[in-house]
Amino acid sequence: MYSFVNVHKRYGLRTVALRKLNLDIRQREFFVLYGPAGAGKSTILNLIAGTTKPTSGDLLRNGHSIVHLPPERRGAAMAFENYALYSHLSVAENLAFPLRAQGIVKAEVEERVRKIASVLGIGHVLERRPGFLSGGQRQRVALGRAIIRPADIYLLDEPIGHLDAKLRHKMRAELKALAEDMHATVLFTTTSNKEALALGDRVGVLNSGRLEQVGTPHELYHKPANTFVGSFIGDPPMSFISVSVEVDQGNCKLRTADGRIIGRMDTPPPTNATLKLGIRPNAITLSDTEMPETIPGRIDVIEHLGHSKIAVISAGKDNISVSLPAASPARIGDKVWMAVNSSGYHVFANETAIQRGIN
Amino acid sequence: MLNQKHSFAFEVLRYGLIVLVVSFFFFPIFWMLLTSFKPETAIMVSPPQFLFTPTLENYRHALVDKNFLFYIKNTLIISIISTAIVVAIGSLAAYSFARFNVGDGHILFFLLSTKMMPAIAVILPYFLIFRDVGKTTVGATLHLGLDQHGALIVSYVMFNLPFAIWLLVSFFQDIPRELEHSARLDGLSRLQVLRKVTFPLAAPSIAVTAVFTLIFCWNEFLFAYILTRKMASTVTVGVESFFTLQGILWGPVAAAATISVAPMLLFVLAMQRYMVRGLTFGAVRG
Fold first, then answer.
1. B284 pLDDT more than 80
2. Would an 8 Å CB–CB cutoff place A162 in contact with chain B?
3. Residue A306 forms contact with B (CB below 8 Å)
4. Model confidence at A262, in pLDDT bands (50, 70, 90)?
5. Across the interface, do B181 and A78 touch by the CB < 8 Å criterion?
6. Domains of chain B and any CATH numbers
7. Chain A: closest CA distance from residue B272 (Å)
8. What is the pTM for the complete model shown?
9. In chain A, alpha helices (H)
């Protein structure tokens, strides 16, 4: 198990890459670090790899600090986002490099290279130099070089981010199966919502160096800790409406800016808090006539996803994404009324979740 | 059709310009080559002669009478040893500047600043230093005195090292750190990484730096002229020796110059492909 204890990482004087990180990565788990570019995902990998050191805090492996161990004694294997392939060596030599470095005999090296190349579908390019490969092939070589040898932890930095959609889908499944076969501990970074939810046993959501929430994909989707996680997990993301609360005989009603009631709360929120209602796209029902507790809006955009449609509806200052069946007759410009499913919304006070809906 | 005519005219103009520029740069070399085969009577005549009976007399004079190969040998010794030292020290220093930012840029700037003064400014101190060092036991053993190979080698290393480091720093900076990180994670020590990953990747760039350094050493005149008399004189000084009190021996000068230019010209032509690769060098990335 790897544990980050109050790890703070700064580059130079001003750039803070990680703020007070506390995180456990368990044995044999597929842990996904998910966040926008510059959130600190790669920094976490580099800290485990030993290619950078924390500014303060400690990093433990099975309870022992590894901060002072050089990279070669960290027991980690890594696939880099920019591939980091040795351009002076062939693909086969690139794949064999980690094995040769460990003094493994030639016959076994060749056998393992052949095996990993066939798993990754790069058997036909083994003699080529990396400069003569496509982006997708390079990425698979980089991935192959990381997983070719046994390691305590595999650090995969956006390893399938540059592949085309079809190949990415295929690799996602293969990677998950491979990790299970190898009983490996994997730390995987991504900027893709789909990859995070599909691959992770647990997912850590990072934002500007801060770990916003750690949980299973189910927990993150259904119980986001704050508006950032709500807006970042799910595709299309959660929509937000500014609301105010009205306490009436112990009953807390949520009102929109134009005074319409659209939901209720069990307990009153902290006083003076800025309240937002977070709504998942599938928690809204549209009607073309006004009903009680609905909000009016106009359909601005319709995205066709094949199996369904996404309508982006403007309601006052807010834009709300709504999931519709593929056969829905809704068209751009339609005026609609939105009813929020009573259990499908989350209430956030000052960006932090205080009441969670259940979808 | 109009467009085609236009582009034909454009092509003519383009190639015309290319020919003009190329002839401007190559004419001196061509004239040198021509003069080296001219009999003495045909050299300084006006108008200049393009047609004449070629002779090897100038080459005989330079090679046999003046023993010009002796200068070539000196130049080879001095240039090759200087280049080897410059590349060895330069690549290690450049790696350290590129990766660890040693001296926070100040040391690198100081090194470069030594190139900001004209060579003539330091030639007198150099002369005095080598004169005195040559008299010491260590200096004598290392041939560091005046008119000895060591003195010129040390001077050339001093003068070429800043440029070589500066050139190599940017090459090393272009090698992504992740390549080294990856090799470290695979179990190599820092020195093994240098030997197996970084230097093989930088090889084309190091070759380019070596070529430039070699050319600078080969063509240097001022230091060679001041610090040597006879025993350690290089080709540039050798050519100058044809400027005698009786007059300038243009024919032998041209022959000697051709002989001194030839090795470098052939060398650079042979290295051309490698040099272009080195100058446009970049590791594989996304």
1. no
2. yes
3. no
4. confident
5. yes
6. 32-44+55-279 (1.10.3720.10)
7. 19
8. 0.79
9. 41-49, 91-101, 106-120, 135-147, 165-182, 193-199, 217-222, 227-232
